[in-house]
């Protein structure tokens, strides 16, 4: 009993902080329909502002606490309310892009200002307290738990008892109707966002003494609150709090058990409890209990303007010509950057296909790429515990390995697609987010993938490799990978062309899918899944197919990417870190919606632009994420900003004409036209028609 | 008395109403008729402040409220029951009624709502979206009963309902009129609307094409305006 108390006490304290974060998240989602992926980043920002005041400026802690609450909680909440209002009628994918953009922005901003290493904010709450058995229950922890329970109770009563509480729940259903019923929807929304942001800020500040002020750690911990929110089905506050305590206790108790084992996988389990809880909820809770909030009012995406076939073909040919010319135009030393650019373009293309064609989103695409990279690398270097068969004394050749790497990613895509079948849009995004982090924390370290901190070798065709001893195999391996057409791929240009040819194949797949029946069905599904099902199409199968295809392409892209540096690492903050998946979503978000051009532009913005002035400036590189995030947010809210007013009268008319499909068929024109007398009027004396009907009967 | 003077209004996509003038006198029922796309719903939205007119004035008892947001206008007793189901689907029936009542007036309002619509009393704890269409419309209509309205704007409250339920709904509306509540009624059942109305306006392509008493116009003439030249 006493031993259990040892875990219980810190578990409850942790659970309280999770609960605070989760309450804020549920509160804002419930009242705005916008799931705030930046909630953790908000908490981290709160912690940094507190650190700035308390440690750097030497203020008293209550003052620093209050300042942080005002700046991040209140002011941040008001800004978020504006953002959420602008996103109110946006499709789910757009809200995900915007909030992920905000996460990227804040994370990058904090890292740029305070550096990546964590800061110590110091214990500002008392650490002494009464002893129960051999456990000290500090007054600080008691305060946290007390505050958390009090806040949860107060909110519960507020929602259940007051008019404002009801109005907060109602405002996401129909803000206009709320206005017709004497409540000001803007005030209601502001209050809920300010409350939600304050909860996030407080949770960040309370976590800081224990974990240190580090944006990566704090964001991740607050994401753990997603698990608690999932237990409450993103709606029920008491259940959310219960879930938070459950997770808090489990996270503190499990290490004592898993430390006994040797398995790295099991040892990583405690950290992953929140994500496992999250995924279990998504897999097993009946779908009807997880309905999306506020999607009823969503407007649809307008498809990008279509060009005629010759124009498209000419454009693509020009693009290809440009990309073929690249190695001969750019500086010799920059070709490697362009090779990586091509590899990234493949991954962007797979993501773009998923997002723009089927209206689903994935926040774990670099996870698929990591699977592709490790599998293909290990295939070529006999990395799989040495049991891999050799064909004619050679390892698998590069193209085969890369394709197999993509194929291995497919089942993972299918697993991720299961929530996509069962649940509505936003939950798919949350599930992929959780899956991406779970994959990184539980499996990147495993011997089948990156095997701890060691690098996975990924030789180019015909290159020598040497793999050091690993935890599963003690003898180093050396060898040469199978060649390809006798070309020397140590020449950077040749590898660029190899990568480009893979990109061309992938682009062909995308175009093929787009022009096929599947493509038409996918677009229809993105438009109205219900209508498509009424037509007799099986949308579940389509969701799986498109997720699998996208995972395959991302896996292939990962292989090509690893080949650029000839090795891949799964270190946190590295190439395949989960945050890169988020940056991908943000970058793709502002690069348009064209299936081939947009991914290439996105890859260019992500990889190439930083080597050219003025973007090669250290400050510019430092604040790269801030720019990506800001652009993603801007593009997401732009349709609601009514920018037409900036265009002047002519511009407005042109925009209207474009909307009405050209030809000046705007509503105004239609209203002023006198109805044309119908040309044919069917009357009873239409003998043929009647006759044929009669004879048919 | 609700007055709309020379209203021109519309959306981003174009102007819908042109120079529309309409009056809803106290204790009167006004029917607003017209074919699809004439601008009836837009007119009600202007009257309740959901959209701001480009030009023209909205007056409540002679006080200019043009440009006031919807929640302010609704506090002055202009109750708009919007097209579709004017309820919050994810809230319970009780919570819906609570939001319809003026702040602090819930107990009386709930009693009024449940005596007028006993069905709502039976379903008080149910989530609104799980009720039948007729019950949902009753819940929407209860807004007009619980909030001491001045003028009620009703936008096709009979839409999508079974004829039997429609009859019931019209009985409630007649009853509401007898209580001295002014109504502006947009209705697809022209005959019913004419029977109830004291005044009739016909809106055609954004302009008022007829204004007068029901006796001055036959149902046939109205049908002609609905169908254009086809029926003549």
Terminal CA distance of chain A reads: 85 Å
Largest sheet of chain B: 6 strands, mixed
Look at the helices and sheets of chain A and give the structural class.
mainly alpha
**Largest interface (C-beta under 8 Å):** A-B, 32 and 39 residues
- The mean pLDDT of chain A is 79
CATH overall fold name of the largest domain in chain B: Rossmann fold
In terms of DSSP E residues, the strand content of chain A is: under 5%
Main sheet properties of chain A: 2 strands, antiparallel
Strand content of chain B: 25-35%
CATH architecture of the largest domain in chain B: 3-Layer(aba) Sandwich
Assigned CATH superfamily of the largest domain in chain B = P-loop containing nucleotide triphosphate hydrolases
N- to C-terminal distance of chain B = 37 Å
Number of domains of chain A: 3
Description:
The complex is a heterodimer of chains A (697) and B (232). With 697 residues, chain A is mainly α. Chain A has three domains: 217 residues, no CATH class; 295 residues, no CATH class; 56 residues, no CATH class. Chain A is built from 28 helices and six strands. In chain A, the strands form three sheets. Chain A has a two-stranded antiparallel ribbon with strand order 1-2. In chain A, strand 1 and strand 2 form a beta hairpin. The longest helix of chain A has 31 residues. The radius of gyration of chain A is 28 Å and the shape is globular. The termini of chain A are far apart. Helices cover 37% and strands 26% of the residues of chain B. In chain B, a hairpin with a 2-residue loop joins strand 4 and strand 5. With 232 residues, chain B is α/β, with parallel strands linked by helices. A six-stranded mixed β-sheet of chain B has the order 6-7-8-3-9-10, sandwiched between helices. In chain B, strands 2-1-4-5 form a four-stranded antiparallel β-sheet, covered by helices on one side. Chain B contains nine helices and ten strands. Chain B has two domains: 152 residues, Rossmann fold (3-Layer(aba) Sandwich); 60 residues. The mean pLDDT of chain B is 86. The longest helix of chain B has 16 residues. In chain B, helix 3 crosses helix 4 and helix 6 packs parallel to helix 7. The chains are: A mainly alpha (697), B alpha/beta (232). Chains A and B meet through helix 6, helix 7 and helix 27 of A and strand 2, helix 2 and helix 3 of B.
